[in-house]
Amino acid sequence: xxxxxxxxxxxxxxxxxxxxxxxxxxxxxxxxxxxxxxxxxxxxxxxxxxxxxxxxxxxxxxxxxxxxxxxxxxxxxxxxxxxxxxxxxxxxxxxxxxxxxxxxxxxxxxxxxxxxxxxxxxxxxxxxxxxxxxxxxxxxxxxxxxxxxxxxxxxxxxxxxxxxxxxxxxxxxxxxxxxxxxxxxxxxxxxxxxxxxxxxxxxxxxxxxxxxxxxxxxxxxxxxxxxxxxxxxxxxxxxxxxxxxxxxxxxxxxxxxxxxxxxxxxxxxxxxxxxxxxxxxxxxxxxxxxxxxxxxxxxxxx
Length: 302
Hints:
302 residues; Nucleotidyltransferase, domain 5; 2 domains; five-stranded mixed β-sheet; 8 helices; 12 strands; globular
């Protein structure tokens, strides 16, 4: 763990936490930024493990943040992890009442949830969700700290080796009211082509899936593609959940129907004809990221 700087002052503390693994599970890191009442950075923390998961690192970041703050002061915790936010604010009382079990069985990461429960007992803590990779500078800094630790555990600071691809796809989306826009940069060698369009979609998650499927369908079969996306839902779905959903007849582990099934089925067909990788965006964003975001917003309005 690598702490810096003095104690936090003021009547309320704001903390920003982030964590992740690349791949998931795999080498992992977490990061924390603690602000004083004036909004100035008072402390930064970071750490990592050789093998862990996104969720365990998100929980670890929150634990380290609360361990480092004064128990008598109110705290606002900002996180881009829905798992952490909902776990603390919605699910935790039920788990405790059932003897640290979920309705459907074993509770994952029970050791970390137990530690968090100890730390929040008797404290004034509010939990705020922030969208990741959306320009919040303190969230971005926590992300940088976590990414640095992940890279260190991947190869002691050495660059991660990747296989060459035929096309780099950088995708942004902008969800609207039942319709959204997408923009993509297709990079082959020194050349680049930018495209944009709009799609009917009920949610940002569905839009991410449909836009990716549409882009891949426009590329030749059999090529190697790297898709750069800011959506963990899309990346994790494509790399971790999709095969299991197909085997189980498009139901989740809990037996409920998979959300956005039609969109996932379309993407599954597109992936089957191409060799696709999903690089993590933990760290620096691809070139043109902001410009593509603007194009996507324009497409959603057009």
